Amino acid sequence: MNSFFQQVYDLVAQIPSGKVVSYGQVAQMLGHSRAARQVGWAMRCCPENLPWQRVVMADGSIAGGDFADMRRFLLQNENVTFLPDGRVDMAACRWSGDSGADIE
DNA sequence: GGACTGACCAACC
DNA sequence: AGGTTGGCCAGTC
């Protein structure tokens, strides 16, 4: 099924190591500024080949409930910068697409 | 086939 | 500053 849902996987799969994106950002890249809910819903399927740990909340917090702490560890292992708050440093690790032109 | 929900976000009050 | 609401898509009831 080719859909927004599928595009989310494709986009997340393209996120380079040491970079993260917020749910809303992914949605916005795909042309759906408010489809963040659906992005999270796509993540609910948790594909093994999908580095969804790079997908965080808009404020840098890790989503995913029980696995959140595990993902934070994975991100640290990928050279992602974290703030003293325990959140991802979005200012330094926010991935603005491969071109960086679709957003902002 | 209609209504609800779901790992969110941002605007509004 | 914190709670409520609207909005997107797709899957389930």
TrEMBL record:
GO biological process: DNA repair
Cytoplasm in keyword set: no
GO MF annotation terms: catalytic activity
Keyword DNA damage: yes
Keyword annotations: DNA damage
Highest taxon listed in the record's lineage: Archaea
Residues of the Methylated-DNA-[protein]-cysteine S-methyltransferase DNA binding domain: 4-80
Descriptive protein name: DNA base-flipping protein
Source organism per UniProt: Methanolapillus millepedarum
Name of the encoding gene: atl
